[in-house]
């Protein structure tokens, strides 16, 4: 957690000094990205191993922080950059990140942790489990589509919906702000609905969102669509973490961190490739986003289909457990 926090803050500070594209790529792309990834899994593992019945709600509540940051930092940069310039605007974000990282590290450091022997970064048994692999690949398809609207919502608002430049910029904040509801509200129903059911419904709704995005060409309708997608996006990034704790995907809770890292590691290839693929499909000169929208929708449909088998295994496992306890 400390090393990830250091890389994140260091990358932001180096970004403030960057003057060439390759420098921004190394600092913001690789350093901040690597730091965020290193910090993300330990934080989720702590929550996943500290809660059982309330695990989905705990994960969703903790992940609200990323939604808050995703709203505050873009607005903060937009307000500061014209007044103090790019370098100091980025440094201010870096200082805020440093403060939050210190608080997080102190909280985790004070948490009592039983001594455990070091384990491998990879649990090779997981590759022989169809449910785990199908679920991980389905998340790869989700990630292929997930960042397409997030990256292109501002460009779409400006070139297709013809909003003001200011509103097009704040569309990203609207999406990220709406995700707060998706990170918490669905899991208030976790006593009645299984987390994997919530995820499958959300992925199905996301497929619908990608295709209905095509028809969102008016300002009011596009704002409603952005809120709708924002709520769904919140579910998509929190549900998998609570789901992977299920015995079908992680038979040994001591390997929770390893399985989480593997799951998000596999799906990260989708996050890496999705936006460049969409970039090749979008034609900004003619304001044509159709191919990227269809691509994102098809990826979501594929993800739902891949989740059918893991979902069946979860339901069968829980049914057999309930029968044994009856």
UniProtKB/TrEMBL annotation:
Keywords: Membrane, Transmembrane, Transmembrane helix. GO terms for cellular component: membrane. InterPro entries: MFS, MFS_trans_sf, Proton-linked_MCT. Gene3D superfamilies: MFS general substrate transporter like domains. The chain crosses the membrane at residues 20-45, 57-76, 88-110, 131-155, 167-189, 196-216, 222-249, 261-282, 294-315. The keyword Transmembrane applies. Belongs to the major facilitator superfamily. Monocarboxylate porter (TC 2.A.1.13) family. This is Major facilitator superfamily (MFS) profile domain-containing protein.
